[in-house]
Design brief:
Strand content: 5-15%
Number of helices: 12
Shape: globular
Strand order of the largest sheet: 2-5-6-1-7
Order of helices and strands: HEHHEEEHHEHEHEHHHHH
Length: 317
């Protein structure tokens, strides 16, 4: 195993996959759906982008942020107080549950707010002295800087609460952030986030869910489109690569998830980088995912599709 197998900073990565999004049908569908609504809806909305682990949600977020910055370039130059987005990732703390304080602070930091630790309201309950001041600071930041969207990743963690009542309150609170600040809220998450659709009546017309699905058997040709895009990308970087005879294996053992495909191919690239080896089926086979992980992903996807079919289409799959 060569030296590039060591951990390295994504910012300094020389990987052909760094800062690059692979265009493929399901990805493009979700991306265009989201862009049109963020830029087109006049009333603040809550978008739920739901899909399995490894489908490509993180790549989609990066692409979305870049696209919003490009589309709003003139607006941002005219009004320097504007932001194209505010982004944060939820964190689950075992002893406390969802870390709201950390989420608020991450949003404020991404919004370039200063003196974040001093945004405290003394009238808030003593067990959570920071939350009210931080929540109000987030509202004010969004209202003043008018980002196109407040983007929250790992939204499945919102489900890690004690009861349906707590989840309902969380959803009402997220909706109220948008209403008060006039900001769209885009929440990305795995299939745990789909359980929020149970409360779609409370969110009503302000809630817009979309299923960012993996490719199923009938869409294997679309999956191969993504695979060939990765192959072409590697060739642009003078990597010796041959993906012949790999489609069925890669499709099956990534559950049709392009994000997992990207991770697999990048691991294989690390193995051949700096050598004269060809990145082919034998190299890919040596970098396959553990059977236990694959079984977990398959179970998650199977259950997730049933949930999405029930809540979005009103029927069981």
């Amino acid at each position: 195993m060569n030296s590039h197998s060591a951990l390295f900073s994504a910012k300094n990565s020389k990987s052909p996959m760094a800062n690059w999004a692979c265009s493929h049908p399901f990805y493009d569908l979700v991306f265009q759906w989201l862009i049109k609504r963020i830029r087109g809806l006049s009333e603040p909305a809550v978008f739920l982008i739901i899909g399995p682990t490894g489908v490509g949600k993180s790549t989609l977020i990066s692409h979305l942020i870049s696209r919003l910055a490009a589309e709003m370039m003139d607006e941002l130059k005219t009004d320097t107080s504007r932001l194209h987005k505010v982004y944060a990732e939820t964190v689950y703390v075992p002893s406390r549950g969802l870390d709201w304080e950390g989420l608020f602070k991450a949003l404020l930091k991404d919004g370039k707010e200063i003196l974040i630790d001093r945004k405290v309201a003394k009238v808030w309950p003593p067990e959570a002295p920071n939350l009210r001041g931080l929540a109000e600071a987030v509202d004010n930041m969004l209202f003043q800087h008018a980002p196109a969207a407040c983007i929250i990743d790992e939204g499945g963690l919102f489900w890690e609460v004690s009861s349906d009542e707590s989840l309902n309150r969380t959803l009402e609170y997220l909706k109220s952030i948008g209403n008060r600040s006039r900001t769209h809220i885009a929440i990305f998450g795995d299939y745990r986030l789909a359980k929020m659709l149970h409360f779609n009546g409370q969110l009503n017309r302000r809630c817009h869910p979309i299923h960012f699905s993996n490719y199923t058997e009938g869409f294997k040709d679309n999956f191969e489109v993504a695979l060939r895009a990765f192959e072409a990308r590697l060739k642009q970087y003078d990597v010796s690569v041959c993906m012949d005879g790999t489609v069925d294996m890669l499709f099956s053992e990534t559950c049709g998830c392009v994000g997992l495909l990207k991770r697999w191919i990048e691991n294989a690239w690390i193995e051949v980088d700096g050598t004269d080896r060809v990145l082919d089926k034998s190299v890919l086979e040596s970098e396959c995912f553990p059977a236990g992980s694959l079984a977990k992903w398959r179970a998650e996807i199977r259950a997730g599709h049933e949930v999405m079919e029930f809540f979005i289409n009103g029927k069981k799959s």
